[in-house]
Amino acid sequence: MLSDPRFDKDRIIRTNDHLLKDSYIWILENDTFLQWQAGEGSRLLWVRGDPGKGKTMLLCGIIEELQRQASGSRIVYLLCQATDANLNSANAVLRGLLYLMIKDEPDLIKDLRESHYSRQLFEDANGWDVLCRMFTDVMSRSASGGTTIIVDALDECIKDRTNLLEFIVKLPSTSTKVLVSSRNWPLIERGLAPTVHKAAHLSLELNEHSVSAAVVTFIKHKVDQLMNTHEYDLETRDLVYNHLVEKASNTFLWAALVCRQLTDIHLDNWNVESKLRIPARSQ
After folding, report:
1. Of 40, 53, 165, 199, which residue has the fewest beta carbons closer than 10 angstroms?
2. Is the full-model pTM beyond 0.85?
3. What contacts 24+ positions apart, CB below 8 Å, involve 79-82?
């Protein structure tokens, strides 16, 4: 089954309480990102960080900003999810990227149909090789002025990840840029750093100040929403805000979990304090 990456992105943004520009704008001004965007140095950029740092929403923000800025170039992407069979394999990544390329240039599908490809070939032992050849053909026939390929959460590609990494490092060219994200896994670092195409790194841990400010911005936004929804008094608002900022440890995930629980039901001040006793976690 083929998943539409556009709808997957919209769903992920919706289920993560929507996209807050102030929480990702810092990366658009980061020197490493700007060099990659301008095509200076490596055309392969790896955004890396520990769990809960907001990598997926960061890339969703980048995708939307690049789409707004795109002029004659094409942005294709896929957000991997380990729990979804349509989004957790190397084959799924290439299928999703191909889908968006063909949606941008429908004439390309005619060429593919007239070639030696069939649906069965996607699913047999040759499926990966067929997809790679299709991808190469589409890239060579495309009339686009350039392509930016974005793949989020390589660590959540649990099937044939090695194939995907080998394919990714061969992609960067004068007309193609690649942006990927993942956790800080050495095996992914090794896969992305062959001698010919050494990836540029953007570590969220090394940009702790920017990530911390983004988390605080997110918390302020969520607490303001809670105050409006549940009519918190100022004392309760400050209690929630200060607790979240103190315990979040520069991660979005824990703060989002607590805010979601506080959103579910109307709580008086005493119950709010009880809910805030959820142990802080760094995942």
Report:
1. 40
2. yes
3. 79/5, 79/8, 79/9, 79/12, 79/152, 79/153, 80/151, 80/152, 80/153, 80/154, 80/155, 80/156, 80/157, 81/8, 81/153, 81/156, 82/153, 82/155, 82/156, 82/157, 82/158
| Positive or negative: CA dihedral 138, 140, 146, 150 | positive
Alpha carbons within 13 angstroms on the beta-carbon side of residue 148 total: 22
Write 121-125 long-range contacts (CB < 8 A, 24+). 122/91, 122/95
pLDDT tens digits, 236-280: 899 999 999 999 989 999 899 888 888 876 655 556 766 676 666
CA distances, 151 to each of 192, 229, 242, 265 (Å): 13, 36, 35, 36
User: Nearest 5°: CA angle at 103, between 101 and 107?
Assistant: 90
At 125, list the tokens: 């032992």
Calculate the alpha carbon distances from 11 to 16, 26, 74, 208, 225 in Å: 8, 24, 22, 28, 21
